[in-house]
Design a protein that fits this description.
501 residues; alpha/beta; 9-stranded mixed β-sheet; 18 helices; 22 strands; globular
Length: 501
C-alpha cells in the first residue's frame, strides 16, 4: 500500500481514532486480516467471522508491528473505529450484492462497516496511483476460466512492469480490495478478478478499482441458482465493460467472439471493442489457427493478431479450454502495450500457479493425476472431461473422480444426471462419484444408464481408497481427473493420490 498516515486513513473511511497517540504515524506496510501475516508498518483489519473475531487478535497484530487496527469497536491498542452499518437497512437493500455470504453472521453490522471502509481505502489508493499515470487496472470476469486467465495475464504483464494480482480466487468483497491495496507507487498493472452472485455486484467491485481494460470470458451456468437465468448472468458480467472509460481515454473491452452472450455485450461499453476467438474465427482481432493437442492434452496453435505476424504458442497447461484463456490474456496484454513476441514467450513459459486448477502430477507408476477440484460448473466440468479424454487417448484408462457442482438452482439434479449420461462421450472408463447428496445420486444414475463402470463412495477417504484399488488392478497407464466444487474438498483426493497431501 502507498504510505498513508493514521489520520488520513481515518478521514478516508470516516472513522474515529481510539488509543492513538500519534495520528501522523505512517502505515507503510500491507493491509492484513490475518494477524499472523502482519509485518512492521502494516495495517490490521479486524474482520469478525463465524468462529473467530479479528478484534480479539488486534493486540497480537500490534505487537507484530501493525501501526493501527481498522476496527468496529475499541480493541485496547491503536485503532480507527468505523461506524457500524444498520443490518436491517442493509438486509432490505434491493441490490443482491449486499447479501454476500460473508455477511451471514454479521448480526451487528460490523462486517459491513469494515468492508465498506476497506473498499473506500482501496478506491483512494487506486485512484491516486492511476491519476499519476503509473497504474493500469485490468478486470477479468466470466463464468469459467477467470482465475486461469488472471494468472496468465499476471505472468505476461509482469514481464513489462511490476504487477499485482490476487492469489487464488480473491475476487469478492474481501479479496478484491485486499488485492488492490497491495499496489505501491511503482505498480504498473493491477489484474483484478471479479466474481458475482447477482446483478450489481461486479459494478460495485469495479467501482473500487475502476478498470481501464475489461475482459469477459464467457457466460455459463455457474451460480445459476443465484442468478435465475443465463440472461441475468450476462447482464451481471457485462457490468465490467460498462465500467471501462471511453475509447478516447484508453478504455478497452475485450470480448469472446465465440460466445454470443458475450459478443452481444459490445453495445454496452464506451471503450474500444476487441474480440478473440479460440474457434478460429478470422474476423476476430485475436484468434487461434492450426490448433492441435499433444499427448498430454497441451495446446499448440498460431496466435493471430492485428499488430504483428502470427506467433506460435505452446502451452504448458493442460486442456483445450486453455486456448480461450490464453487468447483472452494475449488480447488484453497486447492492448496494454506488450509486444506479441513477448506475450508468446510468457505464455510458452507459463505454468499453473493457483492451487487445484489443472494441476497435473505424474506418479512413478505412470499414473497421471489431474487435480482440477477448485471449482466446477457444467462448462468447466465438460472442459475437464475433455482434457481427461485427450490425456487418456494414448492409450490409458480414464478415471473420473467427480463430486457435486454447487449453486445450479432448481435443475441441479437434471444437470448432474445429464453429466452422467455424457461420460461415455469422453471415453470415461470408470466414474468414482463422491458424496451422498441427491445430485450425486442423479450423477450415478445417469452414468449407470450410459453403461459407465461406476463406484459410489461417501467421502474423500473412500474416494482415495477406491481409486487406489482400481489403479492396483490396472494393466496400463492411467489418468485420473478429480473435479468438483471447492466446498466438497475433493482436492484432498487428488493430493492423497499424488502423494502431496
Amino acid at each position: 500500500m502507498i504510505p498513508l498516515t493514521i489520520a488520513r486513513i481515518a478521514d478516508i473511511v470516516g472513522g474515529r481514532l481510539d488509543n492513538v497517540t500519534d495520528p501522523q504515524a505512517v502505515v507503510t506496510g500491507p493491509v492484513e486480516f490475518d494477524s499472523r501475516k502482519i509485518v512492521p508498518g502494516g495495517l490490521f483489519l479486524a474482520l469478525p467471522g463465524a468462529k473467530v473475531d479479528g478484534h480479539d487478535f488486534a493486540g497480537i497484530a500490534h505487537e507484530a508491528g501493525a501501526v493501527v487496527t481498522l476496527a468496529a469497536r475499541p480493541v485496547g491498542s491503536p485503532a480507527i473505529i468505523v461506524p457500524r452499518i444498520d443490518t436491517d437497512s442493509a438486509t432490505s437493500a434491493s441490490n443482491s450484492a449486499s447479501q454476500a455470504y460473508v455477511f451471514t453472521h454479521d448480526s451487528d453490522g460490523s462486517m459491513r462497516a469494515l468492508l465498506r471502509a476497506l473498499a473506500q481505502l482501496a478506491r483512494v489508493v487506486v485512484t491516486e496511483l492511476t491519476d499519476t499515470g503509473s497504474l493500469s487496472v485490468v478486470g477479468v470476469t466470466g463464468s469459467a476460466g477467470k482465475t486461469s486467465t488472471k494468472d496468465m495475464l499476471a505472468a505476461i504483464l509482469s514481464t513489462s512492469g511490476p504487477t499485482i494480482a490476487p492469489p487464488g480466487s480473491f475476487n469478492n468483497e474481501i479479496g478484491h480490495p485486499y488485492t488492490a491495496l497491495r499496489c505501491q507507487a511503482d505498480t504498473e498493472f493491477l489484474v483484478a478478478e471479479l466474481s458475482a452472485r447477482g446483478v450489481g455486484h461486479i459494478a460495485q467491485l469495479a467501482d473500487i478499482a475502476p478498470p481501464r481494460i475489461g475482459v469477459v470470458l464467457n457466460v455459463g451456468s455457474a451460480h445459476l441458482g443465484e442468478f435465475g437465468s443465463k440472461d441475468t448472468i450476462a447482464q451481471a458480467k457485462g457490468e465490467l465493460i460498462e465500467a471501462v472509460p471511453p475509447a478516447a481515454e484508453g478504455g478497452v473491452a475485450v470480448l469472446n467472439a465465440d460466445d454470443p452472450a458475450v459478443a452481444n455485450m459490445a453495445s454496452r461499453t464506451r471503450g474500444k471493442v476487441v474480440t478473440f476467438s479460440a474457434a478460429g474465427d478470422a474476423t476476430a482481432d485475436y484468434y487461434a489457427s492450426e490448433l492441435r493437442l499433444d499427448e498430454c492434452a497441451r495446446a499448440r496453435f498460431q496466435l493471430n493478431s492485428p499488430h504483428a505476424e502470427p506467433v506460435e504458442i505452446r502451452l504448458q497447461v493442460m486442456g483445450n479450454h486453455q486456448v480461450s484463456n490464453a487468447l483472452a490474456a494475449a488480447a488484453v496484454s497486447a492492448e496494454a502495450g506488450v509486444p506479441l513476441e513477448q506475450i508468446a514467450v510468457a505464455l510458452n513459459d507459463y505454468v499453473a500457479v493457483s492451487a487445484h486448477r489443472m494441476d497435473v502430477r505424474e506418479r512413478p507408476d505412470n499414473v497421471t493425476i489431474i487435480n482440477d477440484a477448485y471449482n466446477a460448473n457444467p462448462e468447466s466440468m465438460h472442459a475437464g472431461l475433455a482434457a481427461l479424454a485427450s490425456a487418456a487417448a494414448h492409450p490409458a484408462q480414464a478415471i473420473a473422480v467427480l463430486g457435486e457442482m454447487s449453486e445450479l438452482g432448481d435443475n441441479a439434479r437434471e444437470v448432474h444426471h445429464d453429466l452422467g449420461t455424457q461420460l461415455a462421450a469422453y471415453s470415461v472408463d470408470t466414474l468414482v462419484a463422491v458424496g451422498e447428496t441427491d445430485n450425486i445420486a442423479a450423477l450415478v444414475d445417469g452414468a449407470r444408464q450410459a453403461g459407465i463402470n461406476t463406484r459410489h463412495v461417501a467421502d474423500v477417504n473412500g474416494g482415495t481408497r477406491t481409486v487406489e484399488e482400481i489403479l492396483r488392478s490396472a494393466q496400463h497407464r492411467d489418468v485420473v481427473l478429480v473435479k468438483a466444487s471447492n466446498a466438497w474438498g475433493l482436492w484432498r483426493v487428488a493430493e492423497q493420490l499424488a502423494g502431496t497431501a
